[in-house]
Amino acid sequence: MSNTKIGIDARLINETGVGVYIRNLLNNLGRLPTSDIEFYVYVKSHNDFNSQISNFKSHIANFQWHSFSEQIGFLHQLYRDDLDLMHFTYFSYPLLYRRPFIITIHDLTPLLFATGKASTHNKIIYSIKRLAAQALIKNAFHASEIIITPTTSVKNLITESYGKDGAHKISVTHEGLNEELLSIKENRKLSKRFDKPFFMYVGNFYPHKNVENLIRAFAKTKIKAQLILIGPNDYFAARSLQLINQLKQTRRIVLYSNPKLEDLVFFYKHAQALLHPSLAEGFGLPLLEASYFKCPIIASDIAIFHEVLENNYLAFNPHSIEDIAHKIEYFFTHKNNSTSLYLPQKTIENKFSFQKMAQETLKIYREEAHHTRGV
């Protein structure tokens, strides 16, 4: 019998968040015994993925996610490749694909945040895109063989939204510490630029990340420290900068755009704490990264963060600017008690590992592909 043909959608491999998931998944799958599987890794450019492993082959699928070309062109390509199983690593995929597939749903942000503020488009276009996202997730719930989620919190949100009768097909596979950071040395040159005590935020600036409330809260504090906002240089970052200027906080709150890995290592090693004010998350990779570098965590009092960190962080009400400010000031004056505000190393190693995630994902591949082929 010929090898099993499994496709992996890696079009977002160069992005943050989902890209970290894809890169670590592929790297760890490549270390596992998979000679019986032929992997079709779909990327936008050959430069995106170059594997020395013979059964991992990149296939160009230069179709933008959330696009008409994805719905038509990518669909045609997948049918032409005649896969035994397809893994969509993000909720944007060809809606009319009817062959066996599994899908990773990282979070339900498109469902939870019905606000045009989450898009640079006008309200009509945004409404259309949001409805399309809802249709894709709903279709995935019913049409997929397996749904992979990074946390039980996301699984619960899915079953609450679409019915508990689908709970049996949802598999929780925890993500892990980004292995790309482990061998990187910090950018020590940044110590000259950031020579005062500072807090850090790392991520994008979408509305559900709640960065504007963080900015307003930090502006209220009286502590002698800076806040470094680390993320992409885009429309939403520009909005944050506008707010910083309005509050006259340009000396205290600084944007640091498009960081390299060595920059992130520096910030994690020297920050007073990581501030994570999100209203919703699927997992929260910075929580593990901060814990690895023993950087204390001050974050939102939401279910997902408690699932990942348990009680190893200082929680605040993300809707209350006053509470965020209070917790930052409290931490700054009680720093001697910060050793319990990040995950212990053993917990990270035992519970959160991309290697373990890849093993669990490979098991899903084999079981579903064998079922499909009648093996």
From TrEMBL:
Q: Which residues form the Glycosyl transferase family domain?
A: 186-336
GO terms under biological process: lipopolysaccharide biosynthetic process
**Signal sequence range:** none
Q: Which InterPro entries match?
A: Glyco_trans_1, Glyco_trans_4-like_N
Keyword Transferase present in the record's keywords: the answer is yes
User: Care to name a GO molecular-function term for this sequence?
Assistant: glycosyltransferase activity
- Determine if Transferase is one of this entry's keywords: yes
Q: What is this protein called?
A: Glycosyl transferase family 1 domain-containing protein
Organism of provenance: Candidatus Roizmanbacteria bacterium RIFCSPHIGHO2_02_FULL_37_24
Where is the organism placed in the taxonomic lineage, from the top? Answer: Bacteria, Candidatus Roizmaniibacteriota
